[in-house]
Every structure is written in structure tokens, then in C-alpha cells.
Design brief:
heterodimer; A: 308 residues; mainly alpha; 4 domains; two-stranded antiparallel ribbon; 38% helix; B: Cytochrome Bc1 Complex, Chain C; flat
């Protein structure tokens, strides 16, 4: 026998002890051959066992049903001992032989069954297989592998189409449409250019770029520290960025996330209304004006709309 | 053998010339296998995969996408159009840089651009309206993502990057607003910069840093110029790269609803 290093033997013994639920010392002793190996009985997970009421089954059949601790070894049964075979009639004998063919897995005894199983003495027919080998087991259990697939499908198959041409073609078309729109817009509308910058001449009103006009409108209501900084900074940046972490509802359908939809729509409407007010309804001194009566104070739109 | 008509012979010659060019070494070296520009491209599922897989676009698009995602009504192409507008703005912006000096001469340069330089007015208009459009499109893109709940797991972080991209877009637009150096520009930026001055604790410093002084001067102009043409585009490209990469890593487009 090959000399196994002590530390490897110990590790194997620990694994065996864990698998069989025995102490490490016992497992070690077993492996060194100082003690009989522990045998654990386990219910077989797959048994193709068909119970057919045959005369053979009525008699105690020690081969297939044994209360003793057993290990399961799938044995392709070609010839099964039928102890009662001699006692039955020829017609039934044929039937019994048929059923024994169906047995796919049998439990066999590891230890001599003589003491435990009240089995009838075996008939020493030449074609009988001895299922009680008086051999010491030389193999040992390394690990117990659960009978589950090692790969699990995690995603459902999705209906997909080729990117070329089904995605790239619409993209190309929308890109061309956008280019055409932009060139057309630029050809028609002249970008504003007022007099040269003069820090000494303040226009009335002085307006920020349009995307900040909602903020500028808010500034006229509240203290600038609240309206100009806290709202855009806290609401606009922090809450906005953290939104996926605040909204833990996994649903995506609008009907199942009414609050989020409402929240966003409210924000959108608020920002839109404030911006429109800032753009169109604010005149000199940030006073309320009506664009159709007093005109528009928004130089970005200088070339867009003319009021006479 | 049947004699070919002149027209058929011309057609044959044209086809063989095209084939020998498309199948030649030059075209084969430029276009990778599966390209529609190579000789012998046939419309097959294999070649459709190769078109993307053997293309630089493979960095942006997977070979296959979810069927609902290619419906125009699902995304309205808003994300793609944001990116496209950024490219348009980069091209027109680089063009404008040839004619612009961020000094006291800025206003004169813009005037010259509008009157003296071929297509100067058109390109300036495209840059300006394109910028406004980009702010709008990015905002609409964000709204679309919100209404589809597309920020939910595993896409939470990509939403965060998206908000950063929106802020960078606003900053790019805001810094560009000053560059024409006219009354509209300087006073809009003054109003915007004064808002930054209301920041608690570091308000004065923030305003001073933004203006490079106490008010908008030509020093501010230079500062905004460098931010606008170099610093912010550099930052936004990095965030865009991560944004697009995460779109694919998080399993492509969201949904369907």
C-alpha cells in the first residue's frame, strides 16, 4: 500500500467524517484499517422498482428487501436469483422471470446477512450471483455530490432581432432626419447676437439661459439660499441621483408604480410651468407681463416670434 | 455562342470591374469579413451578425437586440439622438474654434463669422440650436427612462451616470452661452453665476471660481472657453463611454413594460 502523508489523510478523514457524521478520529481509524468502515444507509433517489404481485414476491426475498444497513449500487440485473423459483408452476415461472427483468437497482448487503435477515438458505444454483461479498471495502467516500444540475438557466429566452438591419436602419434614418431638421432650423432661424458685452449696462430684465429660468423664477419667490441652491442641489441632484435607490418597487408597468409616475409628472409639470413663466411672462423688474399684450423679454426667441 | 448586345457587354464589364474592386486587396483590407461593402455579401443571418460583430460598431451594439426595443415608439431614439447631437456639436464646435478668440475680440470674431465667413452663420446657428436641442433631448431621454422604470435593478447606477451626463450637458451649454460675448451672453451668465453665489458656506468662493473674479470679465470668458472646448467634453466623453458600456452590461435595453 502506498504511504499517504499524514496531513492528506487527516484532511480526507475530516471530509469523510463530515460526510458520514462520525468523529474525525473514527474516520481516521477506519481509513488506516484499524476499524471497520462505517456504512450509512440512504434512501435511493431513483429506483425503477416495480412491485408485481408474484409468488416470488410473497416469499421473503432477502435479496431485495433487507433491513440491514446497505449501500446502493445500481446493478444491471440480467439474472436475478429467484429463490422461490423452484416452487412455482411453470406458467408462473415465466411470469416471475419477466418481472425480475424490470429491476434496475437493487440493494445489496454489505455485511453477511446471516445474522439479521431471516433469509432462507440460498440455493446454490450455478446461475446465481452472490450478492453478499465478504470483501472488505477498499473504496471510501470522498464527498457527497447532490444530484442537481451544476448549471442553472437564469434567464428566459427573449425574442430578439438582428441589430443589422433592424436597429441600425431606423437609427440611421432618425439621425438623418435630425440632421435635416437641424440644418433647416439653422437656415431659417438666426441665432441671437446683441450688442457687445458691456458690464456697465444692465438689461432689464436680465434672464438666465432658458433651462435655468425655472430656477430664476423660483428665486423670485423664496430666499435665494432655499430656492437657488437647496432645491436644485438637494432635489435636483441628490434626490435625483439617488432615485433608483429610494424607489425599491421592482415593477415597471405604470399601473403598478402610480406614486413614482405621479411624482415625476408633478416635477415635470412644475418645472415646465416655471420655465414657461420665466420665459414668457416676466418683463422688466421681473414683473408679470402678458406676451400677447406687453411683448416677450426673451432674447433667445428674438428671431422666432414678432410682435408689432 | 450567342452574341451579346452592346448593353449587355457594358453591364458585364461593369459588374466584373466592380467585383474585382470589391473583392480586391484594398477593399478587403479596409472592410472586415461580413461587411456589405465586400464582394459576395449576401443577406443571411450569418452575415447580418458579421456586419455588427466585425465592425467598430460592435462596441456600441450587440449582434442582436430585443424585438420590442427596435420599435420606434419605445425609445423614440432619444438616447441615440443625444449622442448624435453631441457629435454634431463637436464637429461644428471644432469648426467654430478656427474663427474664434476668447478675448476682447470674441464679439468681433462672431460678427465676422456671421458676415464674412462662408457658411459661418449656418454653422453657428447649428451649434446654438443643436445645443438647445441637446438639452431638450437629454431631458426627454431621462423622462422616457423614468416612465419606463428603466432605472430599476440592475440599471440603478446607469441612472446615476445619466444624471451626471445631464448636469454636464447643462454645464456645457451654460459655458458656451457666454462665448458670443454679447449683452445676452454676459448677463445670462451673470445671473447664472450669481445663483452659484447663493451656495451655503462656499458661495462666495464658488462664484469667484466660476467668474475668475467678482464679475463676468474677459478672464471669465477664457475660463468658460477652456471649460467649454476642452475640460467638460473630456469629462462627458468618459461618462458617456461608461454609460453606453453599462447599457450593454446591464442586459441591453429595458422592458418590455
Amino acid at each position: 500500500m502506498v504511504d499517504i502523508p499524514e496531513h492528506l489523510l487527516k484532511r480526507a478523514a475530516q471530509a469523510r467524517a463530515k460526510a458520514l457524521g462520525i468523529s474525525v478520529e473514527k474516520a481516521l481509524a477506519e481509513m488506516k484499517g484499524q476499524e471497520d468502515p462505517t456504512i450509512v444507509s440512504k434512501e435511493p433517489e431513483v429506483i425503477a422498482f416495480e412491485e408485481v404481485p408474484t409468488p416470488a414476491a410473497e416469499t421473503p426475498a432477502p435479496v431485495t428487501e433487507t433491513p440491514a444497513p446497505v449501500t446502493e449500487i445500481p446493478v444491471p440485473v440480467t439474472e436475478t436469483p429467484a429463490p422461490a423459483a423452484e416452487t412455482i408452476s411453470p406458467v408462473k415461472e415465466e411470469h416471475a422471470a419477466e418481472t425480475t427483468e424490470k429491476v434496475a437497482a437493487v440493494k445489496i448487503e454489505q455485511k453477511p446477512p446471516a445474522a439479521k435477515a431471516p433469509a432462507p438458505a440460498k440455493v446454490d444454483t450455478p446461475d446465481e450471483v452472490d450478492f453478499a461479498p465478504e470483501v472488505k471495502v477498499t473504496q471510501r467516500l470522498l464527498t457527497v455530490v447532490k444530484a442537481k444540475p451544476i448549471q442553472k438557466p437564469v434567464s428566459e429566452p427573449v425574442d430578439k432581432v438582428n441589430t443589422w438591419p433592424h436597429l441600425m436602419l431606423p437609427e440611421f434614418v432618425s439621425l438623418m432626419a435630425m440632421t435635416a431638421f437641424l440644418i433647416l432650423l439653422s437656415a431659417i432661424l438666426q441665432a441671437p447676437l446683441l450688442e457687445e458685452a458691456n458690464p456697465n449696462v444692465t438689461p432689464n430684465p436680465a434672464k438666465a439661459p432658458w433651462y435655468f429660468l425655472g430656477l430664476q423664477e423660483l428665486l423670485s419667490y423664496w430666499d435665494p439660499q432655499i430656492a437657488g441652491v437647496m432645491i436644485p442641489l438637494v432635489l435636483g441632484v441628490v434626490v435625483w441621483m439617488a432615485f433608483p435607490y429610494i424607489d425599491r418597487n421592482p415593477e415597471t408597468h405604470p399601473s403598478k408604480r402610480k406614486f413614482a409616475i405621479m411624482f415625476y409628472t408633478f416635477f415635470l409639470a412644475g418645472a415646465g410651468v416655471l420655465t414657461i413663466i420665466g420665459v414668457l411672462f416676466r418683463g422688466p423688474g421681473w414683473n408679470w407681463t402678458y406676451p400677447w399684450i406687453d411683448g416677450i423679454w426673451f432674447d433667445d426667441l428674438l428671431d422666432w416670434i414678432h410682435f408689432e | 455562342m450567342q452574341k451579346l448586345s452592346l448593353r449587355d457587354r457594358i453591364k458585364e464589364a461593369r459588374v466584373s470591374a466592380t467585383d474585382s474592386f470589391r473583392g480586391g486587396k484594398l477593399m478587403s483590407s479596409i472592410f472586415r469579413p461580413g461587411s456589405p461593402f465586400r464582394k459576395g455579401y449576401v443577406d443571411s443571418p450569418r452575415n447580418r451578425s458579421y456586419v455588427v460583430m466585425n465592425n467598430v460598431l460592435y462596441h456600441l451594439h450587440p449582434v442582436k437586440v430585443k424585438r420590442h426595443g427596435v420599435r420606434l415608439s419605445y425609445t423614440l431614439c432619444l438616447g441615440g439622438l443625444s449622442f448624435f447631437l453631441f457629435i454634431v456639436l463637436t464637429i461644428t464646435g471644432i469648426w467654430l474654434m478656427f474663427y474664434f478668440r476668447p478675448t476682447e475680440l470674441a464679439y468681433v470674431d462672431i460678427q465676422a463669422l456671421q458676415t464674412d465667413i462662408a457658411f459661418g452663420s449656418l454653422v453657428r446657428n447649428m451649434h446654438r440650436w443643436g445645443a438647445h436641442l441637446m438639452v431638450l433631448v437629454v431631458f426627454l431621454h431621462m423622462s422616457r427612462v423614468f416612465y419606463h422604470g428603466a432605472y430599476k435593478a440592475p440599471r440603478e447606477f446607469n441612472w446615476v451616470i445619466g444624471v451626471i451626463l445631464l448636469l454636464l450637458t447643462l454645464l456645457l451649454s451654460f459655458t458656451g452661452y457666454l462665448l458670443p460675448w454679447d449683452q445676452l451672453a454676459i448677463w445670462a451668465v451673470t445671473v447664472g453665476g450669481n445663483m452659484a453665489g447663493y451656495t451655503p458656506v462656499i458661495g462666495a468662493q464658488a462664484k469667484f471660481g466660476l467668474f475668475a473674479g467678482l464679475e463676468a470679465t474677459t478672464a471669465t470668458l477664457l475660463r468658460f472657453y477652456v471649460l467649454h472646448v476642452l475640460f467638460l467634453p473630456f469629462i462627458i466623453v468618459i461618462f458617456m463611454a461608461v454609460h453606453f458600456w453599462r447599457v450593454r452590461k446591464d442586459g441591453g435595453i429595458s422592458g418590455p413594460l
